Amino acid sequence: MLYSVKMRSAQGGAHELGGRHISGAERILPGDQLDYAVLTMLHRAREHERGCADFISLKVEEIYKPLLAFSTCKAATAAEGHRAAIDELVRAGVSINAAARGLAMLNGLTDSMRGAMVLDAESGLRIDGMGERGVRASKMDCVDSRGYDDYLQQSGLVGDHVREALVLASKVAGAEGMVAELCWSDDPNYVTGYVASPVYGYRRIPVMKERGNGVGGRIFFVRPNTDVAKLINYLEEQVVLIKPQEALTC
Ligand code: WAQ
Ligand code: MG
Fold first, then answer.
1. Cβ(80) to ligand 1 under 6 A?
2. How many C-beta atoms surround the C-beta of residue 19 within 10 A?
3. Between 20 and 30 A from 203 (CA), which of 21, 48, 114, 218?
4. Mean pLDDT of the chain
């Protein structure tokens, strides 16, 4: 097991309450090194030359998330694909209104964004406030690349698109408050997309757009009242390793 350990300390109260920053540290460590690392961080915060911290926050999190199960929907045309996507989103817990809005938003893009839009899964309103950039999921990979490649090959999954998308979707599905993700590629000749969710896994949809269309996108649907700043921090900053469930050899 590997853990992410984060410490931040301040004087005069917590940072968010106006305290003055004293020190911070981040490590990624195996379990047997946790005790020592945490003690060292506590000492650092309390005996710092910038002053003695009176607020110390320590966060210890396991960095593994499960690889999503994989399955395929039926769709021979983009219109069928969009209907399948709405069904999958609704099944995963997105309101029909939000699912339709999300699909229309991706369809309505005139150019691809770098990241994803975050929508409230109930109202369908966009809540990330990140404009044309959107939110980028990053700092994730598979625990064992060779094992993951073998698993993909055995499952008949070929190519970089699905290799990367399955890991990305697994990190995204592991976010607090995540209901479902909708995606299709911005590569003109890659027409396959997916809906992913913590409950039903990665549901591949063979056709989500017309061939030759270079606009794609991603939408993350989250439960109402999800803490957006925390979500963005998880997606963009937290290191996550994707681990197979049960028999899969990721
Ligand atoms: N985080 C958030 N959004 C992203 C990221 C990221 N790291 N990378 C790309 N996007 C958004 C951005 O708006 C892109 O325009 C859009 O997603 C599509 O990105 O099972 O290739 O990298 O075979 O083109 C699906 C695989 C492939 C389906 C998706 O996406 C399958 C794909 P692309
Ligand atoms: Mg692309």
1. no
2. 17
3. 114
4. 95
Confidence at residue 133, expressed as pLDDT on a 0 to 100 scale: 96
State how far the Cα of 197 lies from the Cα of 174, in Å rounded to an integer: 9
What are phi and psi for residue 20, nearest 5 degrees?
-90, 130
Q: Is 113 touching ligand 1 by the criterion CB < 6 Å?
A: yes
| Tokens (6 digits) for 33 | 């090194």
Residue 248 has pLDDT above 50, yes or no: no
pLDDT of 245 reads 78
Q: How many CB atoms lie within 10 A of CB 207?
A: 21
Average pLDDT rounded to a whole number, residues 163-179:
98
Q: State mean pLDDT over 206-229.
A: 97
Mutate to test the pocket of ligand 1, among 163, 172, 182, 186 (most ligand atoms within 8 A of CB): 186
> From the CB of residue 200, how many other CB atoms can be counted at a distance below 10 Å?
17
Of all protein residues, the one whose alpha carbon is nearest to atom 19 of ligand 1 is 185
Contact 215, 112 (CB under 8 A): yes
What confidence category does residue 213 fall into, taking pLDDT thresholds of 50, 70 and 90?
very high
DSSP 140-170: EEES-HHHHHHHHHHTT--SHHHHHHHHHHH
What residue owns the CA closest to ligand 1's atom 22? 185
Residue nearest atom 30 of ligand 1, based on CA coordinates: 185
